[in-house]
Amino acid sequence: MKILVTGGAGFIGSAVVRHIISNTSDSVINIDKLTYAGNLESLADVSGNSRYAFEQVDICDSAAMNAVFNQHQPDAVMHLAAESHVDRSISGPAAFIETNIVGTYVLLEAARSYWSTLDAARKTSFRFHHISTDEVYGDLPHPDEVPTGAELPLFTETTPYMPSSPYSASKASSDHLVRAWLRTYGFPTIVTNCSNNYGPYHFPEKLIPLVILNALEGKPLPIYGKGDQIRDWLYVEDHARALYTVVTQGKIGETYNIGGHNEKQNLQVVETICDLLDELVPKKGSYRQQISYVTDRPGHDRRYAIDANKICRELGWQPQETFESGIRKTVQWYLANSEWVQNVKSGNYQSWIDANYNRK
Ligand code: NAD
Q1: Which of 94, 147, 225, 280 is deepest in the core (most CB within 10 A)?
Q2: Is 167 an active-site residue?
Q3: Which residues have CB under 8 Å from 185's CB, separation 6+?
Q4: Residue 348 has pLDDT above 60, yes or no
Q5: Region of residue 311 (phi > 0: left; psi between -120 and 50: alpha; otherwise: beta)
Q6: The pLDDT of residue 299
Q7: Catalytic: which of 32, 83, 135, 321?
Q8: Pocket around ligand 1: residues whose beta carbon is below 6 Å from it?
Q9: How far apart are CA 248 and CA 125, in angstroms?
Q10: Among 195, 81, 87, which Cα is nearest to 140's?
Q11: Nearest by Cα to 212 from 260, 281, 145, 132
């Protein structure tokens, strides 16, 4: 198969591209605008492979996207390109509306126009896989909001959408567009909604890499509010395997939730990282002493948790990492890859990170 991956220079997209090139015989065309979050160095392991091609294109550029489809003639699309950081969506929502909503619309139309020219066999096997987030569902009751012993609900594929942030609202909107293109035009789409990812090559504005790097630099480790927000963490390589499973075996029109059954409070995550660093890079005193509480994010969702039984049952996917094994690998990766870190941090976004997270 020839798979067109959008956002392949980002955190999850690059894991998907590395997975496909390293573990299958399929080809990849990586379409990425290379925003602050896109980094071709994350693809250094595969960029010399003859089954890999890169085009620097904005998915909002309709003429350029039509040209990409005509030139490369893909068999499937995996759509990951997005503005992805909730805090940035609060301080500047416009780019989220543009890329996540308008960009998805432009991509759907370019893909549909190309698909309509395919012969019957290729038309039938074509897939448009839209990669989305569990944040579209809003948030779930926190353990401190339910009676002791009561069962805590999980997000399923039929949970109603209730997005809270400009980011999650823009992703919800794109999910609706994708499903409408299936219903209205018979365009063969599949949607996946995944929980929070972590792992190597994660841009250091997100909680886990930010905490690892701030800890090593002796900076405060910012915790929003009380740090009791719960996220369901999935190792990025487990997500990449799940996405490849869905694009190759998933059923048209279906939604699959993807998650690692790893609910953790943010404070627990940060303390785990501190304890690993105490073990791997010991210093006088514990890294926990750098924990610093900051004003909570407006509209902050309190708990996310995914019921991933459908993809496990129907497509046989299972996460391979526990949180404990994945977070150890992640910390070790950041310790061993300071050059990658220095290169991504040398962009102009360092001032944004300092202004938003590194305030005293
Ligand atoms: P990321 O921010 O690391 O990467 C996004 C990539 O998209 C970057 O390479 C960027 O250059 C590219 N891009 C942005 N705007 C573009 C445009 N207009 N045209 C072409 N390329 C553009 O994001 P990520 O964390 O890898 O997330 C990838 C996808 O997975 C997103 O759609 C996100 O909503 C979804 N998702 C992320 C998580 C998570 O925990 N990170 C969880 C569930 C779902």
Answers
A1: 225
A2: yes
A3: 112
A4: no
A5: alpha
A6: 86
A7: 135
A8: 6-7, 9-13, 32-35, 37-38, 58-60, 80-84, 99, 103, 131-133, 171, 194, 196-197, 203
A9: 10
A10: 195
A11: 281
What does the pLDDT look like over 235-293, one tens digit per residue? 999 999 999 999 999 999 999 999 999 999 999 999 999 999 999 999 999 999 999 99
171-193: per-residue pLDDT in tens?
A: 999 999 999 999 999 999 999 99
Main-chain dihedrals φ then ψ at residue 230, nearest 5 degrees: -105, 130
- State what percent of residues in the chain have pLDDT above 90: 91
SS3 80: coil
Tokens 């995996």, residue located:
78
Q: Note the Cα 121 to chain centre separation in Å.
A: 32
Which distant-in-sequence residues (6+ apart) come within 8 Å of 257 by Cβ? 134, 155, 156, 157, 192, 193, 194, 306, 307, 308, 310, 311
> Where are the chain's structural domains?
2-203+236-265+301-322+347-355
Average pLDDT, stretch 57-78? 98
Cβ distance 234 to 262 under 8 Å? yes
CATH 3.40.50.720 fits 2-203+236-265+301-322+347-355, yes or no: yes
